[in-house]
Amino acid sequence: MADVSQLAAQFGAEMEYETADTFYLRLLEAARSSGGRLLIVDPDGKVQADTYDAVVGSRLAISEMWSVLGGETDGDYGFHLLEDEGDTSPSWLRRAADVMLGRSSRGEWVGCFAAPLESGGRFSGALLLIASVQDTVDSLNEIQMQMLGVFLLALLVVLVTAGLITRVITRPVAALSAGIEHMGRGDYQHRVHVSGKGEMAHLAEAFNQMSEQIRSLDEARNQFVSNASHELKTPLATIKILVESMMYQEDMPTELRSEFLGDINKEIDRLSSVVSDLLTLVHIDSHKLRLRREMMVFAETVRESAARLAPLAGKRDQTLDVQITDSCEMFADPVKLGQVCYNIIENAIKYTPDGGSITVKLKKSGRDAVLEISDTGVGIPPEDQAHVFDRFYRVDKARSRDTGGTGLGLSIVQQIIRLHAGSIQVFSEVGKGTTFIVQLPVK
């Protein structure tokens, strides 16, 4: 636009003294130098000179020219598409491509630059330069095509990458979903396999651990129901046999009838004990068991439990030795801890032969009260020591049933100790005896 303004100033000055032929030659030279077509237009819009000699004497409908002639601006420019009348209409495919790329196949893009002419200090028209900008448009179209290609390529890469990422993400999600469906159908053996070390792998590992825990709990539940049914069925069957014997033997001796009634009473006591222990475990498992804590002297609880069991040990000529070196005051449930002491000492008496000895020791070690109960009984095999706290577990099934145990006592003991934030351990050697060590936090 600045070049057109300079040409307009130059030709406006030359119009005063140059002849028409010389002026036209200068105009042609300037047109060749600028690479376009120059026109001189008078204030009325009539073409006075045209380097193409095509529209002299005509009035042009070019908006840029009229804005200059009307005094609206000191210079104006615009771009137009010159239609090619001899070109045939393009195909629909070509036309669609031209519209998409912003080009035309039926003409040429030109730029129109207009600047005012002044001669002798007065306005004398306008200089109009029309030059082809098709090369520039073609270059822009080429850049647009390249950008479109880059965009399509980037879009393809994004789609492929998104597909791969989606597959990587959805595959473990689908595996987890399938695992949940298997678990919902009761298949606790199913495991989810997710490779890698990301969040999904950790989630799959957590799911597998949960599935294994549920499987273990399900097996424990089934085993618990089976054992509970067996424990309840045995005394009921015994009671039934004894009652039927009494019913169908009208001439049963009084001594035998009394013996049967005594056996029935024992079985009822055994049945009541099993039901009571089962209810206790149910309360523990459902977190409904509440400790009634108070400040207590653990030594008194230990002495009381031992004193209650001393007659039982005396009947079997057993020695029950109680050694207490500290009172061990603590904030705990005295009834529940009394049940712990009673159960362990009672087991020691039951599984120690006549004439044996049971030693009960209580001392304070650091911030813990340590209760140690040892006997000289039959002992527990190494392979059974890890299971003595399992529900309904018996080392010697026949002998345990003779002693009247339910197989639930030590399990209840362990749960009560855990509720008190304590621990219990067992150490045993077959033929030499067993030692239970209970540790409980003191105040």
Structure write-up:
The protein is α+β, with helices and mostly antiparallel strands and 443 residues long. Among the domains are: 2-132, PAS domain (Beta-Lactamase, 2-Layer Sandwich), CATH 3.30.450.20; 294-441, Histidine kinase-like ATPase, C-terminal domain (Heat Shock Protein 90, 2-Layer Sandwich), CATH 3.30.565. 53% of the residues lie in helices and 20% in strands. The chain is built from 12 helices and 12 strands. The strands form 3 sheets. A 5-stranded antiparallel β-sheet has the order 2-1-5-4-3, sandwiched between helices. Strand 9 (357-365) and strand 10 form a beta hairpin. Helix 8 (298-315) packs parallel to helix 9. The two termini are 97 Å apart. Mean pLDDT is 81; it is low at 86-97 and 398-402.
Short description, anyone?
It is built from 12 helices and 12 strands. The protein has helices at residues 2-14, 20-34, 63-69, 92-101, 134-184, 199-248, 254-285, 298-315, 334-350, 382-385, 397-403, 409-419; strands at residues 36-41, 47-50, 76-83, 107-119, 122-132, 294-297, 319-324, 329-332, 357-365, 368-375, 423-429, 433-441.
